[in-house]
Design goal:
This protein is an all-alpha fold. The chain has helices at about 5-30, 40-45, 50-65, 75-90, 95-120, 135-145, 160-165, 180-200, 215-235, and strands at about 125, 130-135. A two-stranded antiparallel ribbon has the order 1-2. This is Pentatricopeptide repeat (PPR) superfamily protein.
């Protein structure tokens, strides 16, 4: 073998290893591999439900939950009707009860999927920055197992602290892989304690909650109807 041929061989071998190194480095830097990149906003909102309308809808549901007008499970039609009035007053957004019910189910889906992701091995969630990180192979597995998980390919749900009121349980779902679970849980508790205090004052747009017997189902509709009438008087 001549010196020239030997040099070419070494250069070829060096080029091979260099390409492999670049490929490995690129794989380590990569996040989720999507053929058609999609943003979180595109997954969570659309022409019907804007980000502002979605946020208001969640705010109202959480406040009514803290007031005791609904707890676990699907809210009654009177609760949805109340949120409908608020959305009209705040955003001039008109929804029928079916659309509100479908949106509630979508919120429940967001809760279920993100909760499922937090319990999966290999994914890490930083509560403070709300950023998710995981090896590419983990992302591929999650996308295949649950396509909606692409909504959280970079960051967690923006309303995760409130979506626990939408889920099947009101217990805070702890992230086993979080970088600061304790700090996150403390922040969540203080936020909703302050919100509950706000809801109990006359400064809130909602009427104060009146204790009623748990078996008085007829009183619930009467109380909610009075809430609707009072809100209508305040806004219209």
């Amino acid at each position: 073998m001549s010196l020239v041929e030997g040099s070419k061989g070494l250069l070829g071998l060096w080029g091979f290893f260099l390409r492999r190194f670049k490929s490995k480095t690129r794989m380590l830097r990569m996040g989720p591999r999507l053929s058609n990149p999609i943003t979180q906003d595109e997954c969570l909102y659309d022409d019907l439900w804007s980000k502002k309308a979605d946020s208001t809808f969640i705010d109202v549901l959480v406040e009514l939950n803290l007031l005791g007008d609904w707890k676990v499970g699907r809210p009654s039609p009177s609760i949805f009707n109340y949120t409908r009035l608020v959305l009209i007053a705040e955003h001039e957004a008109y929804f029928n009860l079916q659309e509100l019910g479908e949106r509630f189910e979508f919120l429940h889906k967001r809760y279920s999927v993100f909760s499922w992701m937090l319990h999966k091995h290999g994914l890490r969630h930083c509560f403070q920055s709300n950023i998710l990180t995981a090896p590419v192979a983990i992302w591929d597995d999650k996308f295949e197992s649950n396509p909606f998980s692409v909504a959280y390919q970079h960051s967690g749900d923006p309303r995760w602290g409130d979506l626990r009121f939408i889920g099947d349980t009101q217990d805070v779902v702890q992230d086993r892989n979080s970088t600061n679970v304790v700090a996150g849980a403390h922040k969540d508790t203080s936020h909703h304690t302050a919100l509950q205090h706000l809801c109990s004052t006359r400064n809130s747009i909602f009427p104060p909650h009146h204790t009623r017997p748990s078996d008085a189902s007829s009183e619930e509709s009467v109380n909610t109807q009075s809430m609707l009438e009072e809100y209508a008087q305040l806004k219209f």
